[in-house]
Amino acid sequence: MLPAVLSGFILALFAPLICRVAGDRCGWVFALLPATLFVWFAGLLPDVMANGAQVVRYPWFPAMDVNLDFLVDGLSLMFALLISGIGTFILIYAGGYLKGHAFLGRFYVCMLSFMASMLGVVLSDNLVTFFVFWELTSITSYLLIGFEHEDVKARASALQGLFVTVAGGLALMAGLIMLATVAGSYSLSGVLASEADLIGHEWAVPMLLCILAGAFTKSAQVPFHFWLPNAMAAPTPVSAFLHSATMVKAGVYLLARLNPALGEAQLWTLLLSLFGGLTMFTGAFLAITHTGAKKVLAYSTIMALGTLVMLIGIGTHYALVAFATFLIAHSLYKGALFMIAGILDHETGTKDVAEMGGLARLMPVTAIAAAVAALSLAGLPPLLGFVGKELMFEAVLEAPAWQRLLPVLAVGAGIGVMVAAGIIAIKPFFGERRETPKHPHEAPLSMLAGPVVLAGLSLLFGVALFIPEQTLVGPVVASLGGVAQKVHLSLWHGVNLPLMLSLGCLLVAVVILRFWSSLQPQLAIVRDGLGRFGPEAGYFRIMEWLTRIATWQTRVLQNGTMGNYMITLALTTVGITGFTLFTQYGLPLRLPVPDSGFAAGIALLMVMSAFFATSTISRLGAVAAMSVVGFAVALIFILFSAPDLGITQILVETLTVILLVLVLFRLPGFTRMSSPLERGRDIIVAVLFGSLMTVLILAATEVQFFDPISAEHVARSVSDGHGRNIVNVILVDFRALDTLGEIFVLALAATGVYSMIRFKAEEQSA
Amino acid sequence: MKEANTLILRTAALFLVPMQLLFSVFLLLRGHDEPGGGFIAGLVASGAVVLFLFSYGVSATRELLRVDPRDFLGVGLLIGLASIVPSLVLGQPAMTAQWWAIPLPGGDYYKFSTPLIFDVGVYLTVIGSILTMVVGLSESEESDA
Prior knowledge:
Helix content of chain A is 75%, strand content 1%. Chain A is mainly alpha-helical.
């Protein structure tokens, strides 16, 4: 399992190399990986169908309950299959779409890491690793959306997507920590099996809201839906992947995953079905107001995401079956349609469907694939999309909450996507032949393979319903908390209410489609009018305010005077630490007396040098005096027989003096820039800070919460650490994780200093 | 900063720098049992390079190092992380120390271990961060002058 998740990252490392060697065929080479993974995941299916969920464990830091565990059940396996299966075709397609692009290698690096992160999201059992992979999808998708980084719009869209999803990610982190604390386990399987009362707990409401914030932003639910259509700035293969199987489905996956644990909560049901329903309707409405092929598809994705979230919220057996079916259907047709939109764009040179027409004769294969996939999008028989939509209507009609509202929204959305499907499949391919900027041809095999296979599967699954029913839908329903044996899919349910609703939708959609060309401009006006009050306007307002606050804060806190920074830091520390110290422990007043004349001498030396450092007007003198203090500290270490610390202190002091001398050269001559009043203020702050540190150290030696662990370290240094130098054994063995963190901080600090010096130098030379 | 044009410093540096570098390796290798270790050794090694820099100037130091000081950072961190791999491969909790006795000529053994690999990572990172700062600062001074 670990190789399966990590292989994508590893291959990403070599992607530029492979691109150089394989040239135009590199798409096919890369596709081998997801194809292999697909076969491997498919091989796990029978086991999961027979035995249910399994957890594959890789202990990592078991003492801290950080494990790299993978949860394999119907739900995660279905997602893994979709990601690897659709990923295969996307990678092949990208090879054709971006043929000859200068940064193809870079593209595949991002794409493969993105795919691997997504696999990590759906397979992780540990909440921490889940979250890390979750954030990785945000970061890699940011790189992918902004891939054409010379385009201002692409950069802005990428940043917008990142802000929205990462803001949600922060909320999610809080939510997951609450969840883990309440459930008493950091593993998903542990949370699902937890006996704790998750819903009745006093944290239940904030926990739910935080988790939902994360899932809703990721899955582009109203009011966070605006980032998704903007993400269309990405190259088409990315959009296709982002929309069909990955990224936005991560939020849906999380909700589905937690449904068995939290689904009973009334708040969960209410929020999910309401926001899902609204998103479904909004997406469908916005879809038909656009003429760009990718935009129409993007909004229909929002509709689908809304539907999925709503179905989880409804949570009845029908809803869960509908969820699984709709999800598979959507992934298949959406992947196909996006790739077709890319083909159209690629071959005609325009993205606007209103400018296309009569392409069916020139590109028959594309036209057929588009027609099949669009029929599935519209939800017409005999495609899988039809089954999904009928089940969705069925579920909506028996929803436990918002029963009056949801069916109305569902019918509205149903009409919307049918029109959208018509716009995509009929407008460009049929009717009068129109002149386009480029003369279109049938697309190359690499670009056709994906749409044809995915559209073919939509049809195959629709006709042979037993295939998805037993292999995918059943296990998914089982892992969502339903009963797999009760799952039965069929195309014909008899003449019932859902069928009537579908027929009604179809009639209205045909009428709208007939007049769409004249209707669309008016719809666009309505949309733009509403948009002024919409969430995207809110996003811009928030960003504007954020900048303003940041500017103000920088002006106040970082005004460029070193003295001000010091005062702020010192006073904040004195305030917060001092308050805690005095309220918690009072004043420790037992002053220790130095036990030897030697120690007293060192102390005197330190005090004198400190005074000299503050009163001298020579900078070099001050530096030297400060280093005397430092060397005196080293002497104290040696006095207490800690040679390692002493050596380190001496070396650090030496290098500090060198660094300071290098900086001193750059300073202008010494002048008095402060008034006596300001100097008085500085003295007060300095005295306060010094006193606090003294008291703090006295308190630290006095207050002992636990027995010191140093005795344990000493005792186990030779036996467990194989070393007699305890300091080193602690650094590189007992507490190596801390040291690892510290060297990363060290490297970061050095990089920070370097860039500060560098930018300064470049500014001056420019 | 112009390199100090003093014959004594330059001549002394030629002898001191290699010895100090050797001493740093000595400190690094014995660190587990005697005073020393990656952090101290890294500081000593950076001290040696800084001494060279003071006597021969930045461009000569860059030639001596052959790689950008920042590369030490990346390599050091990577080696630090790589020391985790053996424990993972053996299926133990990450960062479990592994010990191998390497026979030395003369019938003795050297204790080679993942903590030592980790310490080498610390050593390089310390060198990298100090040199990044010092070389950066001296270069910006030269560009000012």
